[in-house]
Amino acid sequence: MAHWIDLDTPAGPVRAWRADPSGVPLGGVVVLQEIFGVNEHIRAVTERFADAGYVALAPALFDPVEREVELDYDKDATARGVELRNAVGFDRASDIVGAAAHLLQSEGLRTGAVGFCWGGSLAFLANARHGLPAVSYYGARTLPFLGEPLRAPMLFHFGTRDASIPPEAIERHREALPNAPIHLYDADHAFNRDVGDHYDAGSAALAWTRTLDFLADALK
């Protein structure tokens, strides 16, 4: 069953939503939130990875600043999420990601990371700074970090109608990371989030299949 656990991190104690598979785990996955916290949607994604055979752990990255944050998707909630994201910062969030990965690795699990939006950019850092195979869904803030070399396999998903990641930004990813597959979808930002107007079921299903194939190969 899925439940909250307490995680010790360099940023202090952080809660994390943990979901375990019913059988022998295929590996571990650190699930990295959007700017809306480890809300019902992110918990559902975490549980979906468990259904696919992985021990999945979603650390509450806002906890060092404010605990128990679960935001909706309206304008005010988005502004609050940006505020909290900036207050936590990438370095502190990356430290939390490393602690979550270490917990799973200490259980003997080969571990990767999958992140969405802000978490998509953190997935890149999980790879570059912690050596985790990683999948980035529409990470719009990765460009400043592209000079950090990858240390493991990496996969990117982008929507071609995502105004936050224009074609020239995607091209910069291709130039900097020629060995990292980049998949494009006729979709907007947050096409995987099955609540809200941007959800695209076909793109989400294809990206999910590609993500599971990637993890199966990278964590074997």
TrEMBL record:
<protein>
    <submittedName>
        <fullName>Dienelactone hydrolase family protein</fullName>
        <ecNumber>3.1.-.-</ecNumber>
    </submittedName>
</protein>
<dbReference type="InterPro" id="IPR029058">
    <property type="entry name" value="AB_hydrolase_fold"/>
</dbReference>
<keyword id="KW-0378">Hydrolase</keyword>
<dbReference type="InterPro" id="IPR002925">
    <property type="entry name" value="Dienelactn_hydro"/>
</dbReference>
<dbReference type="InterPro" id="IPR051049">
    <property type="entry name" value="Dienelactone_hydrolase-like"/>
</dbReference>
<dbReference type="GO" id="GO:0016787">
    <property type="term" value="F:hydrolase activity"/>
</dbReference>
<feature type="domain" description="Dienelactone hydrolase">
    <location>
        <begin position="15"/>
        <end position="217"/>
    </location>
</feature>
<dbReference type="Pfam" id="PF01738">
    <property type="entry name" value="DLH"/>
</dbReference>
